[in-house]
# Entry
Amino acid sequence: MSLRKQTSILDNPPSSHNAVITYAISRQAKRLNIQCRSDSMATVSQRRVYKFGDRVIYEWEQSLEEVNVFITPPEGVTAPQIQCEISVNHVTLGLRGVSDKFINHDLASSVVVAESYWMLDAGELNINLQKMKKGFIWPSVFVGHGELDLMQQESTKQKMMLERFQEENPGLDFSNAEFSGAAPDPRTFMGGVKYT
# Structure
């Protein structure tokens, strides 16, 4: 897990509030036609929901470096009662002393076990999985648990590309940037991601 410098539009104000700023760090980025809009836009949650019947089992989201799984445990369950085991390709989650597990599934991709963790905060269990392949788009958290459709894949690619641009160019603000076309693969674009 890495800490990233956060910048805002105040750090790099556009010359005009109605200006459309074209990101032009390189010829390849120019071809992407990434634009930063100055109007305020509410951020849409990137959480995906996995249900069994009508019951929400978990929600999840991913970024360039990690996948987060959010689960609402039964009321009254405390952190010491939870048993969560994370391995390179598998997660097991349940209550201590109970043989039946709530989650006992293979992951869609590999994780860095030493940097992955879980925590219970404000009644929500968060399993943070650090991707072994930075920039790789996971089709789902667990094998066989409803893969992302094409629109969700594109949305995730765009989000991760902007996250990558922000990481590689910390002095620029991409908080309101958006793509006006299809986004390239964030893992391989322009020489690939940097592992720093």
The first helix runs from residue 27 to 32. The chain has two helices and eleven strands. The first strand starts at residue 21 and ends at 22. Residues 35 and 178 are 6 Å apart (CA to CA).
